[in-house]
Design goal:
The chain has 13 helices and no strands. By secondary structure, the chain is mainly alpha-helical.
């Protein structure tokens, strides 16, 4: 807008041939009439009109420039307000929110929080318990092996027991295979559990905590394993009896004459409804029964050895060690969560600071741009005022020169004075 108006102003001030000829005619006509008078002390109305016309055009242009400068000044004031008031308030508000969030994190996970203090005391207590146990065992490390594979291995042994012993119960539960299966599962679980107990307590006999309980433990293990051996032995006999009856039935033999024979009396008792169990217990082991007995013993011994290797000799060393590790992991997780929250707050603070810095830089850049525009307009005001003064002087000089040449009397003395031009333009400031 201002460039267009400035160009228009320059066009209006341009003293072209048409304007020069018109002014020449007016000046010559007045000069021939010896006007203005020689004694005149003030400029003539025609000169005044010429000067006022130029001043009016300058004044109109200057008003548009001042309006533009007022708009720029208003924007500058808004930017200054943003820099000095708005941005500091935003920074203060962002910092206050981050400090409040930090206080919440401190109260929830910090070292002065109730939760952190609780788990810290738990760690101290469990560490004291662990140190007491370590001192008792000469500061040796925890002696356990294949901790992660122990339960799957014992489970596999229990399943093997089910597969091995299922047929041993078929003789008594021929009409209920499901009962035989569940009974085999129970027996397998029982044997594996007893193998676990045997291995664990065998390992702990060497512990100093068991110095006064060695005989009791050995007696208990001897009694338990005696029962297990007897039980496995009769499982073998049950398997043997089932194989014997299965072979006779498979051969299609008539058992009645054979059962009447005194030599086959035990077998007759075996298949009788009244004394099947008693006759079974008196039967002899064959290859199948011995094989089943050896398999059961092997599985049981494997379980006992695995349990022996799995457990530490001290009864509570592993338990206290795991308890301490658990407490320590909880405390470390709290510490990590606390540090992560603080790191997030710091990242947010940095992001907020960068955002505020970008806003401040943007405001400052806009301020520089507005200041440059203001400086440019101020320079244009000075230059345009000088241009208008020059144009006014050229017009008056041309008018007076033609008037002076056309006169028969002397020209007024004020023709040599052009100070009025500056006064008229200065009056518009």
């Amino acid at each position: 807008m201002q460039n267009f108006e400035y160009s228009q102003l320059l066009r209006e001030l341009s003293f072209d041939d048409m304007a020069r000829n018109a002014l020449t005619r007016k000046a010559k006509k007045l000069g021939e009439a010896n006007k203005p008078d020689t004694s005149a002390k003030q400029i003539s109305g025609e000169e005044k009109k010429l000067l006022e016309n130029i001043v009016a055009k300058y004044s109109a242009w200057r008003g548009s420039v001042q309006k533009e400068m007022d708009r720029i000044r208003s924007q500058s004031n808004d930017l200054i307000s943003g820099l000095e008031i708005t941005l500091p308030q935003e920074e203060e508000g962002a910092d206050r929110k981050l400090e409040q969030k930090k206080e919440k994190v401190e109260s929830a996970f910090g070292e002065r929080s109730a939760k952190f203090d609780f788990w810290k005391n738990r760690v101290i207590e469990s560490e004291q318990e662990l140190n007491a146990v370590k001192n008792a065992v000469g500061n040796r490390p925890l002696e356990i092996k294949f901790e992660n594979f122990y339960l799957p291995f014992m489970g596999a042994l229990a399943l093997a027991e089910v597969w091995v012993n299922r047929l041993a119960f078929e003789l008594f539960f021929e009409s209920s295979p499901l009962v035989s299966f569940f009974l085999a599962v129970s027996v397998g679980a029982m044997l594996v559990f007893f193998a676990h107990v045997t291995g664990e307590f065998s390992k702990r006999i060497s512990s100093q905590d068991y110095e006064n309980k060695v005989m009791q433990t050995l007696s208990g293990l001897f009694l338990l394993n005696s029962i297990i051996i007897v039980f496995i032995y009769y499982l073998g006999k049950m398997r043997q009896a089932f194989v014997a009856l299965d072979d006779i039935a498979g051969a299609g033999l008539n058992l009645t004459p054979l059962l009447d024979d005194p030599v086959s009396a035990p077998l007759a008792d075996l298949v009788s409804n009244e004394s099947a169990l008693d006759s079974l217990l008196g039967a002899s082991l064959g290859e199948e029964g011995i094989f089943l007995l050896l398999i059961n013993l092997t599985i049981y011994i494997c379980g006992a050895v695995a349990s022996f290797m799995r457990h530490d000799s001290h009864p509570v060393y592993e338990k206290i060690s795991k308890k301490h590790n658990k407490n320590l992991n909880v405390l470390l997780s709290l510490r990590k969560k606390y540090e992560d929250e603080l790191l997030e707050i710091d990242d947010t603070r940095v992001a907020s600071s960068n955002e505020m810095l970008e806003k401040r830089q943007k405001f400052e850049s806009e301020m520089r741009s507005l200041n440059e525009q203001t400086d440019k307009l101020e320079r244009e005001l000075v230059q345009t005022k000088a241009t208008c003064k020059k144009a006014a002087r050229e017009i008056l000089e041309h008018f007076r020169e033609i008037n002076r040449e056309s006169r028969s009397t002397a020209a007024p003395r004020y023709f040599d004075d052009y100070s009025l031009i500056g006064k008229n333009f200065d009056a518009e400031e």
